[in-house]
Write a structure and sequence with these properties.
Elements (H helix, E strand, L loop, with lengths): L2 H5 L3 H15 L3 H25 L1 H12 L6 H21 L3 H19 L4 H17 L6 H9 L3
Helix pairs in contact: 3-5, 3-7, 4-5, 5-6, 6-7
Length: about 150
């Protein structure tokens, strides 16, 4: 057997790869959209739950570590907590999902610029998931899909 024969895949291997690619490409986008909504929503919701578990600790974090500019500590903590507890619920339900991405995208920008600039890879992941929902919608498995015909029937 020559080196070329060992490296070059045969026609059978190429067909298998093509079938695997076709199978992957046949995955409905709505499944990816649902997973994106649930995944990124879970990150923010867990953070919100942590904040309400100990409000004093949350205020201390906002005062000493997060230090969001332009907002008083209590206001920043309250806004962040309310956003983290409400927007993920809308994402999970797929209700006004595109609108729900906007405050979360704003939070990610603030976190990236002012709180944890070294965590850009994690933030980029969140932004990618949120932009998928914003630009492509929440998908077939969403309340938005159910109510859209009645809202836009004209």
């Amino acid at each position: 057997m020559t080196c070329q024969a060992a490296v070059a895949p045969g026609a059978g291997h190429i067909r298998k790869l093509e079938r695997a690619r076709a199978l992957l490409e046949s995955t409905p986008l709505s499944v990816t959209q649902l997973l994106a909504r649930l995944g990124v929503g879970a990150v923010f919701f867990k953070s919100g739950m942590t904040k309400i578990a100990s409000w004093e600790f949350t205020l201390m974090l906002f005062r000493e570590e997060y230090r969001v500019p332009l907002l008083p500590t209590e206001t920043a903590a309250l806004l962040a907590t309310a956003t983290e507890l409400s927007m993920p619920v809308l994402l999970a339900l797929g209700l006004f999902a595109r609108l729900a991405t906007l405050p979360l995208l704003g939070m990610v920008v603030v976190i990236q610029l002012f709180v944890y600039p070294q965590s850009w890879a994690e933030h980029l992941t969140w932004v990618a998931l949120l932009l998928l929902i914003l630009t492509r919608g929440p998908g077939a498995f969403s309340l938005d899909r159910l109510i859209a015909p009645s809202l836009f029937s004209r």
